[in-house]
Specification:
It contains four helices and four strands. By secondary structure, it is α+β, with helices and mostly antiparallel strands. It has a domain of 79 residues: Beta-lactamase Inhibitory Protein, Chain:B, domain 1.
């Protein structure tokens, strides 16, 4: 009597390999949650910060510092870190407030990005273009064609637009 070869292990092996390749291919499609850590400080909050403010005023304005400094109690560091996508670099900001005699002595603010300078000619040209050219009016649209007629069915409302 001849024994027939079993092909089941080969098909399950190939199915497993195919499944693992499919899962590996889908691994790049996994959702990555945005990561935000620290104190997000708005520009208007930071602009209100002035030398001579007390610690309680700073805490009311900016909140508690992210990292309490165990070695220097006269320094508060506010950090912010945000990463929204793997393709782009993370946003990091740091604001440091230095105290002297429980009053703000000085502040290390993050540098704001500098915009390219606009010359007087470019500014006047932009203003002239904005004032000379009126906004285009929307084109009139033709009226809609009538709805196709359908036999009325008792108890069913007619179609409307």
């Amino acid at each position: 009597m001849l024994r027939t070869m079993r092909t089941a292990p080969i098909t399950t092996l190939s199915a497993r390999i195919l499944l693992s390749w499919a899962l590996l291919g889908l691994a790049g499609c996994i959702y990555h949650m945005p990561i935000q850590q620290g104190n997000f400080l708005e520009k208007k909050q930071v602009d209100q910060l002035e030398p001579g403010m007390t610690r309680s005023q700073v805490m009311f304005l900016l909140g508690t510092p992210m990292v309490p400094n165990g070695f220097d109690t006269d320094r508060w560091d506010y950090y912010y870190y945000a990463k929204f996508n793997k393709r782009y670099a993370a946003d990091t900001l740091r604001l440091t407030v230095y105290f002297k005699d429980d009053k703000v002595d000085h502040i290390d603010k993050p540098k704001e990005p500098e915009a390219p300078p606009v010359t007087g000619e470019q500014k006047t040209e932009a203003v002239r273009e904005a004032t000379e050219k009126p906004a285009p009016l929307p084109a009139e649209q033709p009226p809609l064609p009538p709805l196709p007629t359908q036999p009325e069915i008792p108890g069913v409302p007619a179609p409307t637009r």
